[in-house]
Amino acid sequence: MARDLSSYDSGRRTFLKALGALGATAAASPAVAGQAAADDAADYHESLRAELTASSRQAKQLPAGEYVYDTTEEATIETFSLVGGGTESTISVDVDAVPHTEAERLDVPSADDPGAVAYRGPITDHSVTEGDLLLGVAWVRSDDDAAEASARFGYVDSDGEPVGENFVQRGAAVDPQGEWLRYFFPVEVGERPDDADVPALELQAGYADQTLDVGGVALLDYSGDGVGLGTLPPYDYEGRSEDADWRQAAHERIEEHRKTDVEIEVLNPGGQPMDGATVDVEMVEHEFDFGSAVSVEHVVGDTEDDEIYRETFLDHFNKAVVENGLKYPAWEGVWDTDNDDTRATLDWLNERDVPTRGHYLLWEQDQASGGGGMNVDPDLPADEKQEVIAEKIADHAAEFEGDVTEWDMHNHPIWQSNYRNNPELGWDAVEEWWAVADDTTDTELYTNEMGALGGQWQRSQYLDYVEHLVENDYPIDGIGFMGHHQQQWGQMLDMDNLLSGIDQFAEFDLPLLVTEFDIQILDRRNAQDVDVQVDYTRDFLTALFSKEAVEGVVSWGFWEEDHWRPSGAYYDSDWTLRENGEQFLDLVFDEWWTEETGETGDDGVYATRGFKGDYRVTAEKGALSGETTVTVDDDADTVTVELTPPGRDDGNGRGDADGN
Which of 174, 364, 425, 470 could form a disulfide with 416 if both were Cys (CB 3.0 to 4.6 A apart)? Predict the structure, then answer.
C-alpha cells in the first residue's frame, strides 16, 4: 500500500497509546449520475457533452453548445499540427480511466520563446467574433518530470505567427504528469488584430526538451446560449492568488492569536540557573482542534485497512466525532449498527484522550430520509410527540454523559425546521428540548448547520436563528458550521465573503467550530479541479485558523473508501496521500507547527515563541539532562526543567511548568 508519511513525523505517536484491534466492513462510495451518463455515451464527443450538460453534476449546467472542430477524434487530430519544430505521431490510448482513444505524442525542443513551439488547431470552418464564449478541452500527460505547457486561444497571421492577445481567461497553465489529466480553457474572444489571419486554439510547448501526449482535444462554442464566463470550468474564487489582499492580514492574526511567548528556565541539580544548556522545544499537539469524523466499522475493524485507518486518524487529528453511530436511527436499531461497536469506538477514543463530539440530540425530522432525524412515529399527536422527543433527548444525553465533550444539540435547524413550522409545536417545543438537554447534561451544547460558511445560501437565516437563541437565553455554548463544499454548486466562497461571514457569527461572542469540513470536486481527473481543491483547502483553513473566535475545524472523514463524498477525501483508497491531504498536513504539521532548539543565557533561560498547544521540552548540558511536558497557552508563564545526572530519578521523571 502506498503510504509515505516520513515528512510528517510530528512526534505525536510517542504520546499515544498502542492501537486497538476490534471488527467491521468498509462503506461504499456513491455513484455520480452525470459521470454515469458520460460513461454510457457512445464516443468521446458524445461523452464530453453528456458530462458537461448533466443536471445532476453541476448547478452551473451548460447547454449543449456547438463543436468548433469535427466531432470525431481522428478528424480533430488531423486539424491540429505541431508548429515551430519537433515531431508528432499518433498513438492509441487504452486506459479505462479516460474517455478518449487516440492521442498525439509530441517530441518538442525548447525555445527562447515557449510559444514558438505549439500544437495548434486553426479554425477555418467556424465563425468566431469578439465576445464569443468558447470552452477548450484537452487531456495531457508526460513522463518528463519538468514537463510544462500553456494554452492559448487567439489569432495567427498569414505567416503562422501569433498576433494579439491570448483570450484564455483562466487556467491556461498546464502541468503534465504521468497520468492523463484533463484541462479546461474558458475563452472570451477579444478584438481581432488588423494583421490577423485565422483564430486558433493551441498548446504552447517550447518550455523544455520534452515529450507530451495530447488527446481528447475539443472546442465548444456557447455563444448566444446565455452562458456567462463564470459558468465555464475550471471554477475559481476571488482571493486565491498568492498576493491576495486578505492573506497578509490573516497571517498577522495567526501570529497574534495562535502563538505565544514562552520562557524555558533550566536549573542544575542544585536548583540554580544553568547557562549554556541546550533546549529542545517540540510540539506534540495543537490547542486548536484539527479533528475528523470516524466510522465505527473502521475503529473496531480487524483488517489491515482498519489498522491503517486508526493509525492515520491518531497521526493526523486531535478531535473526533462518530459519524453515524450516535444518530437515533443507528442507536435505536433502525440502521445496521451494533451499539456495542459504537460503545467500543467511544472507549477507544476516550482511552487515547481524544475529545469526541456527540452528533446529535435534536434534528427536526421524524424519520431518517434526510440522513438522521428523531426516529419517532410521524402520526403521533403533537403533544405526545413533544414529550417523546424530550424523553429521547434526556435519555441520549444521559446515556453518553462523560463520553462526549460537546453535543450538536440542534442539528440542521434551518434546513429542517419541521417542528417549528408546526403550529402545535413551534418554538415552545424547541425551547423545552433545549432546557431538557441543559438539565440533563453538563456537556456543552452547540448548534450545527450547513450553508453559512460552506456556501452561504442559509447564512442570513442561521444568523437570525442564533440571534433568537441568544436573545432568549437559550443554553447555547457554541455555534457549529457544516463546512461541506461542493464545487459544482459554487460553494467555494470568495475569501472576503468567507471572512465577513466568520466575523458576523463572532459577534455573538460564542466559540465557532467547523464541524464537518470537506471539498467535493467535479472530477479528480480534472487537473484544475484538483488544484482549486488544494488551494481552497489552504485558504479555508488559513481563514478559520486566523480568527480568534474559531476553536477548530473537523474534517468529515479522510479516506476515499469511507467518505460520503469520495473526491473530497485526503487519501486514495490505497492510502496514497492526495494533493489536498498533503496541503492539510503541510499546514497543520509544518507551517503551524513549532520545533525550536536553542541555548539558555546567563540567567538559565531560553525564550522562544510557538503555536499554542502541548509540548515536550528537553534540556541537557554535558551528562545532565531533563524533560517535561507542558501546555503552552496564554496562561503559561515559565516552563522549568530540572537537570539530573544519569540514572537519577526525581520521583516523577519530569520537571515542572509554573502556571500550568
Answer: 364
Q: Cell numbers of 525, please?
A: 481527473
487: amino acid identity, one letter:
Q
Report the relative pairing of strands 444-450 and 478-482 from DSSP bridges: parallel
In a domain, 103, yes or no: yes
Residue 286 lies inside a defined structural domain of this protein: no
* pTM, rounded to two decimals: 0.90
Please list, in sequence order, all residues whose beta carbon lies within 8 angstroms of the beta carbon of residue 426, skipping any fewer than 6 positions away: 419, 420
Beta bridge partners, 363, equal: 411
pLDDT surpasses 50 at 29: no
Q: Is 386 inside a domain boundary?
A: no
Q: Report which residue type is found at 332.
A: E
Distance CA 389, CA 429 (A): 9
Mean pLDDT of 518-532: 94
**For the residues of 448-515, what is the DSSP string, one character each?**
EEESSSSS-TTHHHHHHHHHHHHHTT----EEEEE-EEEGGGT-S--HHHHHHHHHHHHTT-S-EEEE
Q: Examine the pLDDT at 46 and tell me if it is beyond 80.
A: yes
| DSSP class of 587 | I
Q: Which among 481, 84, 551, 76 is positioned nearest to 286, based on CA atoms? A: 551
Cell of 381: 399527536
pLDDT, average across residues 134-145: 97
CATH code of the domain covering residue 141: 2.60.120.260
Question: Is a pLDDT exceeding 90 seen at residue 559?
Answer: yes
pLDDT at 653: 44
Predicted confidence (pLDDT) per residue in 422-469, tens digit: 999 999 999 999 999 999 999 999 999 999 999 999 999 999 999 999
Confidence band (pLDDT; 50, 70, 90) for 59? low
Cα maximum dimension of the chain: 91
- Cα angle, residue 288 at apex, residues 283 and 289 outer, rounded to 5°: 110
The H-or-E segment that residue 91 falls in is strand 87-92
Per-residue DSSP letters for 354-418? --EEE--SEEB-SSGGGS------TTS-HHHHHHHHHHHHHHHHHHTTTT-SEEEEEESTTT-BT
Distance CA(30)–CA(137), nearest Å, equals 27
- Say how many domains are in the chain: 1
Q: For residues 553 and 17, which has the higher predicted lDDT (pLDDT)?
A: 553
Q: Which three cell numbers stand for residue 223?
A: 455563444
Question: Domain range for residue 100?
Answer: 65-231
The closest alpha carbon to 68, from 131, 8, 125, 17, belongs to 125
371 falls within a domain:
no
